[in-house]
Protein: 3-hydroxyacyl-CoA dehydrogenase PaaC
Amino acid sequence: MSMALDKRSVVAVIGSGAMGSGIAQVAAIAGHTVKLFDTRPEAVDNAIAGIVKALARLVEKGRMGAAEADLARERVHAMRALDDAKDAALVVEAVVEDLDVKRTLFAKLEEVVVPDCILATNTSSISVTAIGAQLKRPERLVGMHFFNPVPLMALVEVISGLATDKAVADTVYATAAAWGKNPVHAKSTPGFIVNRVARPYYAEALRLLLEQAADPATIDAVMRDCGGFRMGPFELMDLIGHDVNYSVTQSVFNAYYGDPRFAPSIVQQELVNAGFLGRKTGRGFYRYGDDAAIPQAQAEAAQPCPAQVTLVGTHPLFDAIKARLHDASIPVATADGAVPAFHAGGAIVLTDGRSATQRALDERNPNTIVFDLLLDPAKATRIALARADQCSDAAYNAAVGLFQHAGFTVTRLDDVPGMAVMRTVAMLANEALDAVSQGVCSVAAVDIAMQKGVNYPRGPLAWADAIGLRHVLTVLANLGAAYGEDRYRVSPLLRRKLAANPDGARIHA
Ligand code: NAI
Structure:
């Protein structure tokens, strides 16, 4: 176990923009003397003024003592020339995202710093291996990838390039932990962990919109209220900015040689073409501004509770919904059966990646209704349904009434394979499994990264375990069959886990 850098050691931060100023603030609060540099001296002055304000706010909110804040402030210094980095034990680079600029900067730094100084880059998309390649000692260059805003986001991806010394990565990991962050190790690969594994969160939503499953407000509400995500994909893309989000998607897609998994969406490209970049331009998927109407998610009108309900089979999700029906004094008969379903005029089943229409045909029951995955079926406020094209109004309305009387707002999605939450979570887990099987990171790291870097309510691999790996595989295979696209190919690691242990396979030990 490597030790963190000594608190008395000097940290130099090069580039004093959004990220550099946040990194400086965190290092100074952790006790380091921090030296900030920028080619634009006014950027350093702005960064220091911003840190002073941020410290004052922490004191105001009672999160930090006034004396402690004064000391942190006194530890931050402007650096007017790179030579002043000569006493640094760690240099963190957060300049523009440009390989040549970063290479030139590190070459200069190598001439200035002491032999055991660690050189770290905050790049979010450039190969750490490539940044270090021309250094005399590439083994001391490592990625230290913070998330925006740095003081609030706990994740730090510690990225090892091909030449990075393990001890250097371990020291940066321990140092990030000592700064109160949640570090994870990852190998330098396109998108590292978060920017790779998160792609399906946007991509599947854009596909759902392209296929007219529902409007953005409805899909966002389903992802929040059924999936437990803090923000829906469309409001999140509007916040990130479509120019930024589209360019990250393109860069990951190109870096993986056009793997259809990562294909950008023409829906998003059109927003970029239009200059509808999201919140910052007042319009993206939504409109912003004082007079902008807030679009409401679709919700079905009230229906009576069906007279008779039978639960076939047992399954944690169905059992939790049955408990809600019980609490609402709605009697539910039970029966044995292999495929869990509520029967209340039609068959109400959990999506397995087939459309309801396909499933109605396969199972010879026209009255088939599918529902979407719920993160917490005991507490969820909304449930999403899709009906087979062959389904009668009476059978569908009985399903709507059933869930309404269990306390759900019922939202209808058009009948696309895999619905919204299920197909997104299955694809997130699939990507996470590929990252693990390709040695990018550990199982634990990917789950921490997605929870701490993008606030997912559960790590995708823990979530896959909770759904059941067999079901995740079925969803992906059915999506693959429905679309005939390589995009939905199943991670070999998922197949392997299930082959080794068909009934009890889990990703987490
Ligand atoms: P920014 O544009 O806010 O700040 C960059 C600063 O670097 C500017 O003040 C600029 O004057 C300065 N600079 C440019 N060339 C320089 C050089 N050769 N030497 C010294 N200073 C120089 O950019 P931001 O957002 O802070 O990003 C910085 C780095 O962090 C980039 O590599 C970016 O990809 C990465 N990053 C950004 C995140 C974000 O959400 N903004 C998240 C994670 C990483």
DSSP finds 20 helices and 15 strands in the chain. The first helix runs from residue 18 to 29.
